[in-house]
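Researcher: We're teaching a course module on how sequence relates to structure. For the next exercise, students receive a sequence and then see the predicted structure as C-alpha cells, so they can try to spot secondary structure elements on their own. Here is the exercise chain.
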Amino acid sequence: MENDIINLTIDGQNIQVQKGTTILQAAKQAGIDIPTLCFLKDINEVGDCRMCIVEIEGRRGFATSCIQKAEEGMIVHTNTPSVLEARHVVLDLIISNHKIDCLKCTRSGNCELQELARKFNITQVEFEGEMKEYKIDDLSPSIVRDANKCILCRRCISACKKVQGIGAIDCINRGFESCISTVGNNSLNNVNCTFCGQCIQSCPTGALHEKETINEVWKKLKDPDAYVVVQTAPAVRVALGEEFEIPIGTNVTGKMVTALKRLGFDKVFDTNTGADFTIMEEAHEFIERFTNNQTLPMITSCSPGWIRYIEMNYPELLGHLSTCKSPHQMFGALIKSYYAQKEGIDPSKIYVVSVMPCIAKKFERQREEMKNEGNYDVDNVITTRELARMIKQANIEFQNLEEDVFDNPMGEATGAAAIFGTTGGVMEAALRTAQDVLVGEDLEKIDFQEVRGGKGIKRATINIAGKDVKVVAASGLANAQKILEEIKNGTADYQFVEIMACPGGCIMGGGQPIKSSKIRSEFDVRALRANALYSIDEKSTIRKSHENPVLKKIYEEYLGEPGGHKAHELLHTHYVKREKYNI
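Model: And here is the predicted structure for the students to work with:
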C-alpha cells in the first residue's frame, strides 16, 4: 500500500522502503555498508555495540541504525567525520579489553572484530588499562568458553535463549565486572547446556569454539600399529568447501575424499552408509510400534544435542525415543565388528574418526551407552572446521584436488541417506522404506515434500498402505519444546516425530563453517546447503535405504533381520535421565 512506503535519503541517495524498515536495512538495500558487530539478523537486534551509529539531520547525537526505524523525509549520513571518529573510539574501547592472541586463535581470518580492526586501520590500542582475566572453561567435551575474548555482544545469549530456548548463558554483574557466564559461574559441562553449538555459530570472535581434538588424530595417523578409519557425515560435504572460499552449498564430496586419503587415513568411508542402516532399523521400529500401537509417537534419536535436551528436560518422555543409535555410531559399531571380522583386523587396533557438522557428537561418542564389548564405537569426532584445519596444516591445495570415491565396501550409500543432513530428511528417508515394507512392493513415491522446507515446525498427514500417518518435523530446540509440550499434555496425535537440535538440521550444526553476520544477512545459507543435499539425492541411482546392496549383504551375512537380536546388540541403545545442573 502507498501509505506503507517510506521515502528517505541516505548519503545523498533517495530511497524508498517499506514502513518498519530499519536504517541498517534501508542502507543495505541501497548498497551502502554500515559496520555492525552485535547485530545478527532475526537473532540479536539490540544495538548494544554502537558500531552501526549514524547521524540524522535535525537530531542531536547519534542513532543506532540496526534498531532505528526509517521515517518519512529522514536524511541520514553514515560516514561523516564525527561518525567515523565515534566508531573508531568504540572499536578502540572494545579491543582494549580483548585478549589479543590472533596468531593462536581458531577464528583468526574469520573474526568479525579482526575484520573491523583491519577496516578501521587499528594498528595500536589507544585506551590501555587493567584487563579482567578469566579462567578458560574447557571441561565440556564439546565447547570451550574463553571470556577473555568476549566482547559482550550478547549474540550467544540470544541464540541460546531465543533460538534454542535453553538459557544456559547470560550476562552477569554490571559495569566493568560484566561478563557472559552460567548459573553460579559454573562450567558449561555442569549446567543445562545441550552442546548444540549455536552459541559458537553466533559468536563474532573466538570466545566460544569447539573442543579441538585433531592432535589426537594426527598422532594416530603416525602410529604404525593403528588402523585409522574415517567417516564423513552428509552435511560435511556441502559445507567443507566454504572453508576454502568455494561458494556456499557446493558439493565437494570427491575433493573431500581425496584430501582425506592424502592425510593418510587407511580407509575413507561414508557415514551415509551408516544412515542407511539407521533408516532400516528406524523404519522397522516405527512399523512395529505403529502396527501394534506401542508408545507413539516415536521420536527420532539421531541428534545428540536433542537427546541431551530431552534427557534433562523431559525424562518422562524418553520411552518415545527410537532406540536406534545415530548413523555414525552405528557405522562405528559395524566397522569394529563386521568389517574387522571380514578384513581380519583386531578391533582394538581400529581407530574410528567421525567428521561431523555437530559438536554434540563429541559428547555423544564418549557416552557409556556407545560401547560394544568394552570399546567405544567411535574414538574421535572432529568438526567440519577441524577437518579444514587439518587439510590446511598438510598444505593441501583443496580447490585444485582431483575427485576420488569412498572406499568399498562401506562407501556405498543411497540418496535417502544424503538428505539426513537437513531438517525433515530423516523422516522422509524413513517413510520411503516404511511405505514399501508396509505395502509389500516398490512404490513410485520417493519425495515427501510435506516435510521439506525451512519452517521450524512442519506438520503433515501422509497416507501409507491405506492408513493416515500424522507426522511432524521440528528443528531448533525451542520448536522441539513446543512439540514435547503437546505430547506431554496429551494434545498431540502424531505417530512419527523428527527433531533436530539445530535450526535447519545438521547443515547448520555447531561444527559447520561459521558465517559472519553480513553473509548471514545476504545469503540463505540453510537453503543453499539443503538444496545441495537434495540434489545429491535426486542424482542418486538408488534412493531408498532398503535397496542398498551393501546393507542387504551385511544383513544377510552378519546382522540377520532388521530389529533382530544381533542388530539390537550393535545398532541400538538406550537413554537416561540427566540432571540439568551438576553443581
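Model: If you want an answer key for the exercise: The mean pLDDT is 95. The two ends are 56 Å apart (CA to CA).
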